Amino acid sequence: MKYVRIEYAENIISRTMQGIWQEMSYMVRVENLSYQKNLEVHWRGEDGQWHQLEAGYHCTLPDGSELWCARTRRPLTPEHSLPGDIRFSVCLHCAGHTHWDNNHGLDYRIDADSGVIVYRDVPVQNLFHHPVLQGGKVSLSIDAAVRSSLHAKNVRIHWSTDKWQTSHVTRCFNRTNHWDMARGSVARNPNRHGWEIWTGRVPIQHSYRVEYAIECESDKETIWENCGGANYQARRSTLRVLTLNLHCYQESNQDYKFRQIAQAIQDFHIDLVCLQEVAENWNDGHGDWASNAARVINSYLPFQYHLHTDFSHLGFDRYREGVAILSKHEFSMTDSGYVSDSQDIYDIHARRIVMAQVHVPYFGPVNLFSAHLSWPEDGFYTQFDRMRNWADERHGDNVTATLLCGDFNIKAGSDAYCHIVRSSEYEDQYLKFINRPAFESVFGTGVADIGKAIGHDGRIDYIFLKRGSRVHSLNARELFTKQSYGRVSDHTGYYVEFELL
């Protein structure tokens, strides 16, 4: 089985008012063997000197494989000529193994200013599809590489912004001066390698998503390029949520671990962060804002998030211990309150939770609760029901989604977990992505033995989504493990990514 494969490459010499540049791009398909992996393009120009170009993750395909892309831009200067004709191969490092696609030892080649060459055995290839629509973008340009031997008469884009309830058709054009118009290049269209570029522009306006397929019509047949039958999709940013118990300043090398948390928030572009065991110095009950753990983490982010926090009780005999929400987007409303019977700040079972309503671009209002509840024998059932009732009161027709996140101090599959399941209101979003059969059994068909259906899980931290919310999860991951940023607490973090329905 081939774990890495070059899909197509581009080699363009661009002439602009700022100078002359050679631009090279490589699109590579990678099997998702592990989250931790590294992909390099090894290339050399006409000077014979080899270079290593690091590729970055581009998108995940419907079959679970990934596309990775590498780009470089080299200027023409008095000291350095352009690379010219390129010879290259790709190398994947993953799970302690190295995998190559080097054209069976011959390397791949792409001439200077030749445009695009597709190395797959396909008649039509959608080029450099990007799954994310930038905010404010009202049209989408789509390029397709078509084999000249097809003698294509028409290339059309079939597209929809409402999951095919309605659909539209946009015509593509094959212009001989395509590369001059697009990049100031004299590359030919079609090129001498038998590929021609057809371009269309889809007017998406302010839609959240667009799905599309490319139709190529020739005298003999009609060919579809539709991502293996799944269609291509581009959408605005997703909603990314993280929950993590910080362990109340009990970690060694604490500052480094706070920086690791901030790095993960930055790397995963997380929108909403729910934190528990957020500590700050007790200071006779008055607190010490400078030492607040959520504030410290926020200070390590390149752009400060909006922060809402409150404390519940004295923790570890020296801290104000509480919960917090960090949000990339402004709060429309914030609140906090005890859900426990006790409100005594010297009682560990006094449990206050915080909530915020956040207006997320394209999603609208999202209600978020960050909670650290007691163990089942110490008040979980009452505390959860109070939080659920509070969340229900705040969930109006205008609210896109309600999320209950945090350390619930109950094991997945336990009697207390079953209490949440049987409420028929909230669903475990990490389970939904990681173990879909178990999720369907527990939250769908209503299996009697929930613990057996879930199996050994071990989680006590959750991201629950209210049924009827207008979002669904499309990705989930456990963070702050030995393999992912290292341990930063006695808990791991849970990350779930949502898209708008």
From TrEMBL:
Organism: Aeoliella straminimaris
GO CC annotations on file: membrane
Single biological process term from Gene Ontology: GPI anchor biosynthetic process
Name of the featured protein: Endonuclease/exonuclease/phosphatase family protein
Keywords assigned by UniProt, alphabetized: Endonuclease, Hydrolase, Nuclease
Pfam families the record matches: Exo_endo_phos
Tagged with keyword Nuclease: yes
Record domain Endonuclease/exonuclease/phosphatase: where: 242-491
Listed SUPFAM superfamilies: DNase I-like
GO molecular function: endonuclease activity
